[in-house]
Design brief:
Layout lengths: L2 H26 L1 H13 L7 H7 L5 E10 L2 H5 L4 E14 L3 E6 L4 E5 L3 E4 L12 E5 L1 H10 L4 H13 L5 E5 H6 L1 E2 L1 H9 L6 E2 L13 E4 L11 E4 L34 E5 L4 E13 L2 E7 L29 E3 L9 E4 L8 H5 L1 E2 L5 H4 L2 E5 L4 E15 L14 E13 L2 H18 L1 H26 L18 E7 L2 E6 L9
Parallel strand pairs: 2-17
Antiparallel strand pairs: 1-2, 1-20, 2-5, 3-4, 4-10, 6-7, 8-9, 10-11, 12-13, 13-14, 14-18, 15-16, 16-19, 18-19, 19-20, 21-22
Helix pairs in contact: 1-12
Bound molecules: 2-acetamido-2-deoxy-beta-D-glucopyranose (8 copies).
Subcellular location: Membrane
GO molecular function: scavenger receptor activity
Organism: Anabas testudineus (Climbing perch)
């Protein structure tokens, strides 16, 4: 019994323990479960949590790029021809969207907040000066008023039509980008205002949207269930909407798109309530991507989200009034735009029925430029990069009593589209990479133990073999017949093909 062989045997014992413990931990996933439950606990909206500050004041810069469709042949279109448009832009605004009036409710399981957005022009990311650049587009207030008058008498329509013609209002208007976005005093609306004071005299696609919020939200904090983290409980006090025609379509599902629950898997659908689209949508996993050294899952709205009810009956509820449906790829949102015949789609009618694309010259939808996607870090659920693209259109059609519309073919006419993008800032990305490294190290700690066990095993085998060679004379013979054991030896263990006998000795259990 030498000190040397004792050390060898000790190595063997330690190695066996490491292997057993390590493999047990790997199989039981103790560390992974531990770190996951820690994540579920940490990723909640509480005053002390790490994510709360970035939820309240999101650090990544958000850019809103506006592109307009300049109409090049209005006369031809009014005479019954096909409209032709030219894309102009981008006009880029930096978006600031802090959460305000944050109040915890019901023992911290819910939180109230409003999310005002303000927009500051970024000249260096823009194609021109919005105060100067002119865009010829559809006279939206005029079309909205015509649409409204559809339910009135022919006589009234004719009178209004003649009046409009008298003051020089046409179906197309030429205005600066700034006016179209942020508002101008419109002659048609001014006239309406003098009769109906509740109608605003001003019109703009983003009129009164600078510094205002899209409603009061109550969110789940995720304290009760991590899957509810960031989910909308109520919007303007409502649990569901009432303007769509089915209960399913009226549901307010999911988060507002800024946060998602941790531990996302590829098979799930992520729900987002988009207040500007007046509905909930869902996103499905597309592929794995890498952004700033962070692995992420890309989620995008599958084509069934805007599919015609003919192909996807669950969308029937988005036809208002019930049964009045448009085709694939477009969504009429009159219900939440004061009745104006506004239609939203993806830019250039991406994923829409080709009849919409072909109805206007100058459109060329493609995936790279026109898809909407969201890249999420799956362990934490944090959005790493987001790109939301949506187009605003208006339905132009013949209206009895308005001779200017006499020859036009019913068209879903594109007006503008936006590209709202945000990418995680370098600081947060570095923090995220560190966090993920820790998560990976901790959850793989048992693998480390197994690895050490294997290394020790190799050391043990090498030492053992060398030791045996040295004292070949005194060593017990190799017993090929396992049933015959010399006195004092127990067990037969096969190490790399050699049978080894373990000797039992009352003085030392570990040495042979
Ligand atoms: C207008 O509509 C009619 C019938 O729907 C169609 O035959 C014609 O080709 C259309 N014209 C244009 C320019 O699209
Ligand atoms: C938010 O708080 C301000 C005062 O701090 C108050 O004037 C405003 O009405 C509040 N907004 C909402 C939506 O509660
Ligand atoms: C808040 O917690 C207290 C004590 O835990 C409990 O008595 C009370 O019912 C809770 N309130 C709500 C709204 O959950
Ligand atoms: C929006 O409001 C902010 C300040 O509240 C201002 O700096 C910015 O210029 C405004 N944006 C537009 C487009 O008017
Ligand atoms: C858009 O079209 C109008 C009318 O043809 C033209 O005056 C204007 O310069 C165009 N806008 C841009 C930005 O090219
Ligand atoms: C919607 O739900 C309400 C109650 O939750 C029910 O009374 C109503 O019949 C449902 N409507 C439809 C169209 O399913
Ligand atoms: C809301 O979520 C439910 C499932 O939870 C789904 O059946 C329904 O279609 C969703 N509604 C919308 C509008 O996405
Ligand atoms: C936004 O989308 C447009 C085209 O749709 C593209 O040209 C532009 O590069 C995009 N911007 C960003 C910041 O990705």
């Amino acid at each position: 019994m030498t000190r040397r062989s004792c050390a060898i045997y000790a190595t063997g014992i330690v190695c066996a323990h490491l292997l057993i413990v390590g493999i047990a931990l790997v199989v039981a996933q103790v560390f992974q479960t531990m770190i996951h439950s820690r994540l579920k606990k940490e990723i909640t909206l509480t005053e002390k949590s790490q994510v709360f500050e970035s939820w309240k004041n999101p650090p990544p810069p958000v850019y809103m790029e506006y592109y307009f469709f300049n109409v090049t042949n209005p006369e031809e279109f009014l005479a019954g021809g096909k409209a032709s448009v030219k894309q102009i832009g981008p006009y880029t605004y930096r978006e600031y969207r802090p959460r305000e009036n944050v109040t915890f409710l019901e023992n911290g399981t819910k939180v109230f907040a409003v999310n005002p957005k303000s927009f500051v022009f970024v000249p260096e990311k823009s194609a021109g000066n919005p105060e100067v650049d002119l865009i010829r587009t559809v006279n939206i207030p005029f079309v909205a008023v015509m649409n409204e008058l559809n339910s009135y008498s022919f006589f009234l329509r004719t009178v209004v039509s003649m009046y409009m013609k008298g003051i020089g209002v046409e179906l197309f208007m030429t205005r600066t980008v700034h006016e179209i976005l942020w508002g101008f005093k419109d002659p048609v609306l001014t006239k309406v205002h003098s009769m109906k004071p509740e109608v605003d005299e001003y019109f703009g696609l983003m009129y009164k949207k600078n510094g205002t919020h899209e409603g009061e939200f109550v969110f789940h904090t995720g304290e009760e269930n991590y899957l509810d983290y960031g989910k909308i409980d109520t919007w303007n006090g409502l649990r569901k909407m009432s303007w769509w025609s089915s209960n399913q379509s009226n549901m307010i599902n999911g988060t507002d798109g800024a946060v998602f629950h941790p531990l996302i898997n590829r098979n799930e659908l992520l729900y987002i309530f988009a207040a500007d689209l007046c509905r909930s949508i869902h996103l499905a996993y597309v592929e794995d991507v890498e952004v700033k050294g962070i692995q992420a899952y890309r989620f995008a709205p599958p084509s069934d989200v805007l599919m015609s009810p003919k192909d996807n009956p669950t969308n029937e509820g988005f036809c208002v009034p019930a049964g009045d449906c448009l085709g694939t790829g477009v969504l009429k949102v009159s219900v939440c735009r004061e009745g104006a015949p506004i239609v939203v789609s993806f830019p250039h009618f991406y994923q829409a029925d080709p009849m919409y694309i072909n109805a206007v010259d100058g459109l060329s939808p493609n995936k790279e430029e026109h898809e909407t996607y969201l890249d999420l870090q799956p362990t934490t659920g944090v959005p790493i990069r987001a790109c939301k693209r949506a187009q605003l259109n208006i339905i132009l059609k013949r209206v009895q009593g308005f001779p200017a519309t006499k020859f036009i073919n019913e068209t879903i006419f594109p007006i503008m589209f936006v590209n709202e993008t945000a990418t995680i800032d370098d600081n947060s990305a570095a923090q995220m990479r560190t966090l993920l490294l820790i998560v990976t190290l901790v959850s793989n700690f048992p693998v480390l133990i197994v690895g050490m066990g294997i290394i020790l095993l190799l050391v043990f085998v090498v030492l053992f073999c060398r030791n045996r060679q040295k004292k070949v004379g005194s060593a017990p013979p190799l017993w090929t017949n396992r049933s015959i054991k010399p006195h004092g030896y127990i067990g037969v263990k096969s190490v790399m093909g050699h049978d080894i006998l373990f000797k039992f000795s009352p003085h030392s259990v570990i040495c042979f």
